[in-house]
Design goal:
- The chain is of the alpha/beta class and about 270 residues long.
- The protein has one domain: NAD(P)-binding Rossmann-like Domain (Rossmann fold, 3-Layer(aba) Sandwich), CATH 3.40.50.720.
- It is built from nine helices and seven strands.
- The protein has helices at about 15-30, 40-50, 65-80, 105-130, 155-170, 195-200, 215-225, 240-250, 250-270, and strands at about 10, 30-35, 55-60, 85-90, 135-140, 180-185, 230-235.
- A seven-stranded parallel sheet has the order 3-2-1-4-5-6-7, with helices on both faces.
- Helix 4 (about 105-130) links the parallel strand 4 and strand 5 (about 135-140).
- The N and C termini lie far apart (about 45 Å).
- The structure holds NADP nicotinamide-adenine-dinucleotide phosphate (NAP).
- The site of NADP nicotinamide-adenine-dinucleotide phosphate has 29 residues, from helix 1 and helix 6.
Amino acid sequence: MKDLKGRLAIITGASAGLGVRVARVLGREGMNLVLAARSADALEAVAAEVRALGVKAIAVPTDVSDESQLQRLVERSVAEFGAIDVLVNNAGIEAFRAFHEIDPADIRRTIDVNLTATLLLTRYVLPHMVQARRGHIVNMASLAGKQGPAYGAAYGATKAGMIAFTQSLRSEYHGKGVSASAVCPGFASDGGIYEVIRQRIGHGTPWYVGSTTAEAVSRAVVKAIKQDRPDLIVNSPALRPLFTFCQAFPRLGEWIVRKSTIKFLKQAGTSQR
Ligand SMILES: NC(=O)c1ccc[n+]([C@@H]2O[C@H](COP(=O)([O-])OP(=O)(O)OC[C@H]3O[C@@H](n4cnc5c(N)ncnc54)[C@H](OP(=O)(O)O)[C@@H]3O)[C@@H](O)[C@H]2O)c1
């Protein structure tokens, strides 16, 4: 989808972190926005900020783990705007713990918010896109979906699921005007889940893992839609060669990822107790 001006995007998780930046950048592209998350006041503040750019934006308080609220979100979007051109499945939570100690309820919650909600919301949005023969789904995955991290098993599993789901959508709707992209950020150093953990434990990951910014992630979302990219790894230094290497040499790949992230993620998990 080359021209985003006047089109409609639904963005989940738009009350904080990366979702706010995605809302700003899509608003600057001239897109009208439906913003979803649970925090009504924060969401309304983002909607007001985006409206000042001259586009329409509404806040629809939504818990994405509640299917009936997802249905209402889609109904409201269609009632207000007629069509849904872009869906950004961005709402997400982390669950960094030793897997033998993680609360089973946290496993379910992580899957519900990160993965099930992504699939269900896409399911409710797609009939409108298929009928219009136009639409793009952006799934906010993670590097953790490319190589499952220690102490992030549940989180990594949901992100790998989002990547596979994206691939299926691309294949299934190819040639029908509808497509999908997975955006896979590294650790964003200027807001969001990672930055909260980094401040809590007092240090980040080793320098050679690199990082990204919320601005780079939001620009990647635009690139994904306009250039119909299958997936975008957003990190500096570029890590695609590393993940290609991990696939070709899995034992060496897992060693590199374990060495580079294990201390940070272990501390992320223990610091929450
Ligand atoms: N930040 C990073 O370094 C990084 C790296 C890779 C991938 N990601 C991914 O990027 C996405 C955004 O992460 P972030 O860092 O911006 O996180 P964040 O700052 O914690 O924001 C998470 C967003 O998700 C929303 N959310 C959480 N649970 C929800 C629920 N049940 N229903 C509706 N909305 C819900 C939150 O809003 P409410 O609390 O108001 O509901 C908030 O708007 C996630 O999918 C994350 O996995 C982030």
